[in-house]
Design brief:
297 residues; SH3 type barrels; Porin; 12-stranded antiparallel barrel; 5-stranded antiparallel β-sheet; 19 strands; elongated
Length: 297
């Protein structure tokens, strides 16, 4: 059963393979100073303070700032400040992971990880770690996404991305599923709207999820079913760390009862994202949902 964890091993090895790129003149950066202040600015070049102290110069909204390197706790290209645009809560978007990698824990029972290659290939693997349940009954999934297009949006500030992908998943040793999907994302200055169209193309029509001594649940999910998803990610004004999230799913457009809704909030910085929300799926009661993701690179 160890082969199921192979994607996590590969991602763990590669996560440290990216090097910090040198600052580029004319590119926008976000700086977090040692005292906690945040500064946005365009990099102008290197300089020296007092003949010996290395420093960087930035063009900001209030003028040119010269900042000693030792006063900077963290510096990131502005485009990399928020590294979670490749997903809403769990729903994939058309945005690539890029030259980043992450590991996460969903609901305290599922480990998942992802890595990006350039701006076109994104790989994500997930595996449940439910106690007392045999490995043969644990759930796993592996998602491959190709971002085909990412270009400026000529109708409003931002960009438009298009992607296609495939996901192989397993409910048990005997039950595997294959989904194909297409996604479109519209990214603005503070918000992102994403649409998803997916189809189940392989797998049994009658599926059973087993949970050891806890019992099992059987449900129908016919091959050929087409589903849709819509996601929204909005950053609060004047805040870099708080986002409101919303997702709507329907696994079979022929059946409105197979619709799920999730609303939540994300606390995020350049490395860590903590998601909290409530999920409704065919029942009047909400189920709490949580995600914790670390993006070291």
């Amino acid at each position: 059963m160890c082969w199921r964890l192979l994607p996590f091993g590969i991602i763990g090895v590669l996560v440290w393979s990216f090097a910090q790129e040198p600052l580029q003149r004319g590119e926008a950066y976000l700086l977090r100073l040692v005292n906690g202040d945040l500064i946005e600015g365009e990099f102008l070049g290197e300089t020296v303070l007092g003949d010996t102290l290395p420093a960087w110069r930035f063009r900001t909204l209030v003028g040119t700032a010269t900042i000693a390197r030792r006063e900077i706790a963290e510096i990131l290209p502005y485009k990399d400040v928020y590294r979670h645009q490749h997903r809403i809560f769990i729903q994939p978007t058309a945005e690539p992971i890029g030259n980043h990698a992450f590991i996460g824990l969903a609901g305290l029972f599922a480990l998942y990880a992802g890595i990006g290659f350039q701006d076109w290939l994104s790989l994500v693997g997930a595996h449940t770690l439910l106690p007392t349940i045999p490995m043969s009954q644990q759930l796993w999934a592996f998602n491959t996404k190709f971002t085909l297009l990412s270009s400026p949006n000529f109708l409003m500030p931002g960009r438009v991305s298009l992607a296609i992908g495939a996901q192989v998943s397993s409910l048990s040793r005997e039950q595997q599923l294959l989904h194909l999907y297409g996604a479109a994302s519209f990214v603005g200055e503070r918000s992102q709207v994403s649409a998803l169209l997916f189809a189940k193309v392989a797998g049994e029509d009658l599926l059973t999820v087993r949970a050891g001594s806890w019992g099992s649940v059987t449900f129908g999910y016919p091959t050929g079913a087409v589903g849709i998803g819509v996601g929204l990610d909005v950053r609060l004004p004047a805040r870099h760390d708080v986002h409101l999230l919303a997702e709507l799913w329907n696994s079979d457009i022929r059946s409105p009862s197979r619709t799920g809704i999730l609303v939540g909030v994300r606390l995020a910085n350049s490395a860590v994202a903590l998601d909290f929300g409530l999920f409704w799926f065919g029942y009047p009661y909400a189920v709490p949902a949580a995600n914790a993701v670390w993006t070291p690179l």
